[in-house]
Every structure is written in structure tokens, then in C-alpha cells.
């Protein structure tokens, strides 16, 4: 009987925010940039694993008014700028894993993974954040 009460207590705690219409807020992308920029730049060769450890924060953040210049000033120069013909945006790609940049004795997946920030050509604001991968 005591275990049933404990289970009911945790169920009530778990669902109580939804009963009052409260939703958990996602962290803004500006905040993610501010909390990760220093060590992101330190891991520019993707060798120490910091970028790989935090890239999901960028995928999960709420996109706010982040200007391309602010992003580049904090995260550094992108690995690649990808443009598209007849599109109203371009992508800034930042590697977060690259096999070729690892030490010679490193054993891991052969290829590379990257985040890309889509930027509107008219206002230079970040419109989307996603990831991709490739091989050599």
C-alpha cells in the first residue's frame, strides 16, 4: 500500500505542470551560444570532443533573433559557407567531428559531422539549425 502511495505521488508531481497549463521553456539559441562559445572556439580542430558533446544543445534550442555576425563573432569562422542558387538563404557549416583531424592513433568512425545554421539572405538572421554528415 505504501508503494502505491509513493507511485501516485510521483505521477501527480510529474503531471501537475500540465494540469496548470505550464510548459517547460526551451533555452534560447542566444543563451546556448553564450554558454558554449569559449570552449567551442578552443575545439576548432574538433579534437578534444567539446563540440561533439554540446552540438545537441544547438539542435534543441529555441531560435531567437540571432544575427549571423553575432554567431560568427562567438563561434568563429565556419568550416564552410554553402550557398544555393535561387534560394533566400545560405548555410554556415561548423564541423563538430572530423576523423581526419584526429590524432593518428585515434580509432573512430571515418567521416565528419557538422551543424549548419541557415541564414536569411535579406536580414542575416538564423532561420534554422540542423546537422549533417559525410565521408571522404
What does this structure look like?
The chain is of the alpha+beta class and 136 residues long. It has helices spanning 2-19, 29-42, 50-60, 68-75, and strands spanning 80-83, 89-98, 112-120, 126-134. The protein has a four-stranded antiparallel beta sheet with strand order 1-2-3-4. β1 and β2 form a beta hairpin.
Topology:
Elements (H helix, E strand, L loop, with lengths): L1 H18 L9 H14 L7 H11 L7 H8 L4 E4 L5 E10 L13 E9 L5 E9 L2
Antiparallel strand pairs: 1-2, 2-3, 3-4
Quick overview:
With 136 residues, the protein is an alpha+beta fold. The chain has 4 helices and 4 strands.
What would you call the shape? globular
pLDDT < 50 runs, ≥5 residues? none
Radius of gyration: 20 Å
Looking at how many chains there are and whether they match, the oligomeric state comes to single chain
Percent strand equals: 15-25%
User: What order do the SSEs take from the amino end to the carboxyl end, as H and E?
Assistant: HHHHEEEE
- Main beta sheet: 4 strands, antiparallel
Relative helix content:
25-40%
Class of secondary structure makeup: alpha+beta
Span of the ends, CA to CA = 61 Å
User: Number of helical segments?
Assistant: 4
Mean pLDDT: 87
Which strand order spans the largest sheet, edge to edge or round the barrel?
A: 1-2-3-4
**How many DSSP-defined strands?**
4
Amino acid at each position: 500500500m505504501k508503494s502505491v502511495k509513493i507511485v501516485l505521488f510521483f505521477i501527480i508531481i510529474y503531471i501537475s505542470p500540465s494540469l496548470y497549463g505550464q510548459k517547460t521553456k526551451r533555452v534560447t539559441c542566444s543563451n546556448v551560444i553564450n554558454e558554449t562559445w569559449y570552449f567551442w572556439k578552443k575545439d576548432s580542430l574538433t579534437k578534444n570532443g567539446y563540440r561533439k558533446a554540446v552540438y545537441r544543445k544547438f539542435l534543441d534550442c529555441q531560435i531567437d533573433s540571432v544575427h549571423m555576425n553575432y554567431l560568427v563573432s562567438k563561434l568563429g569562422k565556419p568550416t564552410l559557407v554553402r550557398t544555393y542558387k535561387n534560394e533566400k538563404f545560405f548555410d554556415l557549416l561548423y564541423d563538430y567531428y572530423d576523423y581526419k583531424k584526429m590524432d593518428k592513433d585515434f580509432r573512430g568512425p571515418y567521416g565528419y559531422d557538422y551543424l549548419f545554421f541557415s541564414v536569411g539572405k535579406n536580414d542575416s538572421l538564423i532561420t534554422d539549425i540542423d546537422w549533417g554528415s559525410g565521408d571522404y
